[in-house]
Amino acid sequence: MRAPKPLWRLILNRLQTLRKHRSTTIEFPFVQRQPPQGTRGSLKNNFADCIGCHRCEQVCPVQCLNIISEDFSIKELAPRTSGGVIFEKRVTSFNIDFTKCVNCGVCVDECPTGSLTNDRHFVVPRFKPKNLHVDLVYQPRTLRKEQGYED
Question: Do residues 70 and 54 touch, judged by C-beta distance below 8 A?
Answer without folding.
Answer: no
